[in-house]
Amino acid sequence: MKKVPVSSQSTPTLTIRGVALYQRLLDRSAQTAMVEDLRRVVADAPLFRPETPRGQAMSVRMTSTGSVGWVSDRRGYRYQETHPKGMAWPPIPESVLAIWDAVAGTERQADTCLINYYDGTARMGMHQDRDEADFDQPVVSISLGDDALFRIGNLTRGGKTESVWLSSGDVLVMGGEARLVYHGIDRIRAGSSDLLASGGRINLTLRVARA
Ligand code: MD3
Ligand code: FE
Fold it and tell me: What are the Cα distances from residue 182, in Å, to 27, 148, 154, 189, 190?
């Protein structure tokens, strides 16, 4: 059996509207090791700043790993087999896949991991994740670096929302009815973590994109 370098915690510390939160699932050494793996990824597949289909630059910078990666430009949101610069995406690091194995609760393996980088002023507006082929497959998110204020809404836009601060090492699992809820990141608490030498926040989202 593959070694999973996380605490043996098997139940969420908090569940909000069906989103399971495992706080500090990764200890500091697991976080440091994951950041090292991500530095190698970003050296091969640099972060880029996507444009929305309406031509608005996003504040979050991104890259991907896996057989496909998420991109956005004037042609729309989609998964594709290559980075905008043309190369194949790097493989998903083993350290990251181990988290999927520990918490996703599905037989399928993730085929993509999106890497989002937030500087102190970046945010992500409320949206649904619906570019994947099978909504029965969960999404797993890993937070690294500065704290972020995560907001969760409803299955349709608008209505009451709930917010929770995410910290470095936290893992979220969105499955079942939570898979299609609106969600976003309102703001980053700049300087709240010293994990990343230049500050900011990394969020990883593991997904099954293809059918
Ligand atoms: C709830 N990223 O990349 S991760 C995204 O922190 C995205 O970078 C945010 O939303 C971030 O699409 C939030 C938490 C998350 C991810 C996917 C979800 C929450 C979700 C899908 C359904 C419901
Ligand atoms: Fe999302």
Answer: 29, 16, 6, 22, 24
